[in-house]
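Entry 14. Ran structure prediction on the chain below.
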Amino acid sequence: MEPIINNNEIKDLTQTAKTNDQALINEPAKVGKRKANNSKQASKVKGPGFKIRLSSAKRGRNTNSNTSTKSAPKPRQAKRKKNNSAINEKDFDIATNAIQEHINLLKKPENPAEIYLSESSCSEVEPETSFGSQLKNWPRKNSNLTIKKICIHESDPPSTANKSLERHDSAIQTDPEVQHEFHSQILNIQKTSDEDSEEELSEKSSSPPASDQFTDYAKQQTEDAKWINTKKQLENQNSITVNTGQGPILKIFYVDFDLVLCQELLVSFWYQSAPGNVLGAQDMWTSKGSIQRQPMPNNCTLKESLEMVACSYFSLAYIELWTKEHENYQQEVPVTNVYAVVYFWMKQYNGSVKKVLQLGNINGFADDIQYSIVKSSPKIVVSWHFTGNEMNRKKTYVYCYQVASDFQSICNVDNFEAVDHYVSSLHNIEGCDTLIMGCGENKITLWNIEGGRLAATIEMTEIKSPLATLWVKCDRGFLFTLQQCVDRELRLIAIHSMNHSWKRLASYKPPLVYDRLKGVCVENGVVLGFYDQGIVCWNAKTAEIVVENAGRTETEYISGNYLISVAGNEVNVQHAFISLLKLGYWN
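Output, structure tokens:
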């Protein structure tokens, strides 16, 4: 009797097992069935979008006695774990029908779909049939399956869709790793229901197409979001109103489009929008918040300064300096406590907060203490005068206190070089962030903010009266300052930065009825003086009075080049030159 399986067929089957590198289901088969199965080297399940190659070759022990030991090598399946489960024809038909139903869904041109052939998604699906269980437990060595993606859109014609499926089919057929791992994808296809397909289709139809139109769509969405935010800001804008129940107004500062309104019991922060600034509108302000003002204890003194606000993009702070004297029985001068009360708004807090910081104790009188706030950073520069008994020694000490970024503490203290003269005021310099100026007697002193080094001391011997600085600016190597003397005269002085020489450029004398100066504005050849009795405008070069307007009834505050007027409970902020246009006297 001739053997059913010859030696060449056994070699072919062994080579096929090595190529697939997978353990097939071992089942003792009859000789008659084995001949029928060996006639089919590879049975295929075909579809428009998928090709699954199922190898029907099975490795088993040859029981034919006529076959020699050399032609029938020892089977390798004995070393592997046997799988006693079998695949019946009924389960195979169920899986084939499930694949065909899913393929039919892809054929419909009105239903675009995306199929992700992902191995991870298959492990999450529990098989419903014994055939699915066989595939889940199929031994696999190479688990790195490349994700294949098939995308069909409604706009694609049927021919284009079929071509894309054919290309994907050929890729699966030629790739041995994909053939090896593709059986597990049946689980994902088998569990796909009509409801899941409808949800996927609805998501795809609502999203923009993956093309250049997506860029236009994203830009449009960004523009819409910006407009919504701008609209919300415009809706929240309103006029600045004074709460009369919080007491009278003490201070108003306007710095870099931020306004600080300080009343007796309340401190509020406001911001002027860009359209409001260009249009000069008074009803386009945005409130940043308000906070109750700290009650001042007994025997405390509030120090005055022209600069009390530090602002940046992320924060806005209004800083007051409080002093309190204590008798010192060991010395002739008292001991004075110095406190900084910080009212601030921060972007990260989205609200207003206050903090009391103790700067220290000094040996001196509270009246001799001066301070200024550096606008560009939260630094508090404090000076005080000390007179000793030894050889009539006089000194003015200057300290710079660096406030932390969260305004909760003092993070650094710099000791500036002391001077021998009395300093009556401290000032920021417009156009120069590295220097701070001290003015007193007939001297002007400049310190470097970083480190406290003494930069220069300019003594004006021709000016005998004490100086009060109203305005200072640095411009291309020259320092310009406007001083007020005891005789109410205003003097414009220029100082050379290299040799520290100085010159009086002009003197401005107000009329007799103007006796209390609130602020000045110097710009473009014009000097404006704001008094309680009215406004006086001089020509900066000739010192002639150009405009004089007495009898103004509105309460006005000066902050830089801006005039802040309060009429009733409304606050209006406008440039100082606008007041000249409203007077009608400008030629």
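The chain has a mean pLDDT of 73. Will compare against last week's run tomorrow.
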